[in-house]
Amino acid sequence: MKLKERILSVALVLLPVSLIGMAFSYFMGRYHAMFFWGVLVGISFIVFCALQNPHNSGKRKSCQHR
């Protein structure tokens, strides 16, 4: 249980940081870095959704159930 909370907090921190990094890379014109930040956003969002709803972890609509 402790590990799950730690991963969740890391994902919560990583999501805004990577969104800011993506916007910064866009304004700097570095589109390869923007792709990297987008992948980070996707990974942290998937982890966040999977850990939020342990009952729906196998189903696709775990993120849409807010």
Quick description:
By secondary structure, the protein is an all-alpha fold. It has one domain (2-62).
* Outline type: elongated
Residue runs with pLDDT of under 50 for 5 or more positions: none
The fraction of residues in strands falls at under 5%
Structural class: mainly alpha
Number of domains: 1
H/E element order: HH
Nearest-integer average pLDDT: 77
What fraction, in percent, of the residue positions are helical? over 70%
For the sheet with most strands, the description reads:
none
Annotation field: number of helices:
2
Number of strands: 0
Give the CA-CA distance, first to last residue: 22 Å
- The Rg value, from CA coordinates, equals 14 Å
Explained architecture:
The chain has 66 residues and is an all-alpha fold. It has one domain (2-62). Helix content is 74%, strand content 0%. The protein contains two helices and no strands. The protein has helices at residues 2-28, 31-52. Helix 1 (2-28) runs antiparallel to helix 2 (31-52).
